[in-house]
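If your schedule permits, I should be very grateful for your opinion on a structural question. I have a record of one protein: its chain in single-letter code and its fold written as discrete structure tokens. Kindly check, if you would, that the fold set down in the tokens agrees with what the sequence suggests. I remain grateful for any guidance, and I place the record below:

***
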Amino acid sequence: MDITTRLEFDAGHRIPNHKSNCKNLHGHRYAIEVTVTGPIHDDRKSSDFGMVIDFSDVKQIIKDLVVEPWDHAFIVYQDDKEIVNFLNTLPNHKTVIFPVVPTAENMASEAHRILNSEFNKRFNGQLKIKQIRMYETPNSWADAI
């Protein structure tokens, strides 16, 4: 069975060397949809009886590991030195250094990596991340499978 939940957050980024306005500092109202796959609990005494996992439990994991760290942050590619250096001059600025350019595709992949690792640890392979959908705008998204 697959279940999907969605959370939203705001963040800034830029795509250095991009041919259009995306090379400038700007922000988005991102949405992340996480699809989890696993068996439906059949233990009548379990809190999760009839569920794959409680939606609130999935949301808390996503919130703790992806949404809270990225929300109202500026997500910057580690080799975008000009912007990294600038952000380091701002006291108490929430900056997330990304190992790759923070495109929707790479953000979806990074969220998938983070959440997949956590789900493997917590649920011993019983529950898996099937897909991460990262919306950069309401009409544009990337899927990491």
